[in-house]
């Protein structure tokens, strides 16, 4: 019986040509060998699984091959095969994480004086070199300062910033890149063809995508998938194993929001909940998806880095979605998701946040910004492309804050200044919604059409836009009202009367795009009784500020008419 060899080991590159995605490095190394300009110490830095130690081994073979130094080690001589098998006396691989003390480095130094036994060089490959202790680094530094002629160090690290500058400055540094999805797929395709494994293209894409640039991860996932499935491997199986949500679902969700198809949006979220998807991760992934969609929308297909994010197979539909959505709408979804991402992990009923987002976004366009492309030209022109480029450069989580005065069209009262009472009420209301959802889904649907939920004069007030008159009236039916009041009482441990109002005042709606804006809290602060909410003095927003903000909104409204663009 032959022992199973993992794909990673079996398919580990044996020559520079086989190393995937690091041409900029292998070319330089080959040149250096050809020109006999070999450095005494190299530092290979980069994420895990991208080929650092593999390249180090190939370099060792290139230097010590019996035909060497050569750019093309033969892989057949004793030197080459011993290095491949990890048995060479001259090439020592040391794991910096487990041999990090000064004793190990001292021992290493004591042996450095010996001449190589088989090859021409004595080569030390120290992996995860940043893990060494300071004493070990100091001992190492002495060797690096006066390296014996036949000794070469190759350091590898995933955290170059943790390597002392004194060491770095003595090394030739090579930065390994993450391997692109296309390159990973290419190699996986070659492997599966050679190994006669039946697997479809979307499956390979999913595996490559989940590996986030690490070939080793991709190969071990493929191993896992092969072990799991008995016949032809399909993307369903891969998704199962990886616990992945396919892009297609994200596309459907965004499309539902854009099309104001609340039903489909809520159904998708319900599906996530039933399938036990980790919603925090879902929001992060959805945020990245939408971010890439915005790049595609604003920069176009040719200039957008989203090219490598979306798979070829999904291009057609993603482009259609980008074409159909307005830039404002996409940015608005990103904004919402950012807010949710910050809160969702601490929320008792995380899906409520997502459902509220779907409903709110689907209804936010009635009076203000349209979500679809047609007729959205004015707000479109207000988007500053520079902001998007800045976002693209990794500022996804901290968008530039605009001075509200100087940019009246983009007024947004933020809900960042969290206060305990606001959080408490939000948590409480989510709890109530979650229970109603479980006990009477139709009632839940009526409630979801409401907005600006707050407590006023000891009553639970829910506003409804005129077009949701039906929802309002249904909610006001005796048995429904009673149900809400009962559940609220059980969760809050105090009774309250439910009051439904029509709230179609335009400025109200615009200011209350976020369900729990400052304005609501002001009301709460003024009216809440001692046993309901206990506002903290320091957190009150003074009413002058609200009036001031209202004025800014009015100014914006005068300037741009019915348009309201939220940044
Ligand atoms: Zn050889």
Main traits of this protein?
single chain; 567 residues; alpha/beta; Rossmann fold; Helicase, Ruva Protein, domain 3; Zinc Finger, Delta Prime, domain 3; 4 domains; 5-stranded parallel sheet; 3-stranded mixed sheet; 26 helices; 8 strands; 8% strand; binds zinc ion
Structural features, described:
By secondary structure, the chain is an alpha/beta fold. The protein folds into 4 domains: 7-175, Rossmann fold (3-Layer(aba) Sandwich), CATH 3.40.50; 181-242, Helicase, Ruva Protein, domain 3, CATH 1.10.8; 258-396, Zinc Finger, Delta Prime, domain 3, CATH 1.20.272; 435-560, no CATH class. The protein is built from 26 helices and 8 strands. The protein has helices at residues 7-10, 23-34, 52-64, 78-84, 102-112, 134-145, 165-168, 181-194, 201-210, 215-228, 235-242, 247-258, 262-274, 279-303, 315-324, 327-343, 350-364, 377-381, 385-395, 420-439, 441-448, 469-476, 478-492, 506-511, 518-527, 543-560; strands at residues 41-45, 91-95, 122-127, 151-157, 172-175, 451-456, 459-464, 497-502. The strands form 2 sheets. It has a 5-stranded parallel β-sheet, covered by helices on one side. The protein has a 3-stranded mixed β-sheet with strand order 6-7-8. Strand 2 (91-95), helix 5 (102-112) and strand 3 form a beta-alpha-beta unit. Helix 20 (420-439) packs across helix 23. The longest helix has 25 residues, at 279-303. Mean pLDDT is 77; it is low at 375-418 and 506-567. Bound molecules: zinc ion. The site of zinc ion has 9 residues, from helix 4.
